[in-house]
Design brief:
Strand order of the largest sheet: 1-3-2
Number of strands: 3
Largest sheet: 3 strands, antiparallel
Helix content: 55-70%
Number of helices: 6
Distance between the termini: 25 Å
Order of helices and strands: HHEHHEEHH
Structural class: mainly alpha
Length: 145
């Protein structure tokens, strides 16, 4: 087994972050903010809460909280009180978020095309399965610790 998988994954992550920063700078969004905002836009038909995002996306509560706070400060979303539970705040997208949807989607598609160019479709399917398994391996290990 190659000892460079982790190093290569880290390099890919860093390169994607740099590319994402360039693509999203005109909207004053970081790649993490754009990704979370895009998730919210593609799940607009359901009620979204920070705790649910943490569970669904597997991102730490503090990262979700700080990203949501930044998006709120930039005018992409607001929060609405939940009358049945004062601790829960429903995430509500603003018109600014809806206006940015196409640009965010196009940026993510362009980045994925760049990342996956020159790799045959069958190998991409297998790579995706392997990466999902790696993530599952880590989550199972976390649960045991």
């Amino acid at each position: 087994m190659s000892q460079t998988i982790m190093y290569t994954l880290k390099q890919i992550y860093i390169a994607m972050e740099q590319c994402g920063k360039i693509q999203m700078q005109h909207m004053d969004l970081t790649p993490a903010q754009a990704a979370l905002l895009y998730y919210l836009l593609t799940h607009r038909d359901q009620e979204n809460y920070g705790i649910q995002l943490h569970a669904t996306l597997g991102i730490s509560k503090s990262s979700i909280s700080s990203t949501l706070k930044a998006l709120r400060q930039k005018g992409y979303l607001c929060v609405k009180e939940n009358p049945s539970d004062d601790r829960k705040k429903q995430i509500v997208l603003t018109q600014k978020a809806y206006d940015a949807e196409e640009s965010i989607r196009d940026g993510m598609i362009a980045q994925q095309k760049l990342l996956c160019s020159k790799i045959p479709e069958q190998r991409l399917w297998q790579l995706e399965e392997d990466l999902k398994q790696m993530l599952l391996n880590l989550k199972e290990t976390e649960a045991e610790i």
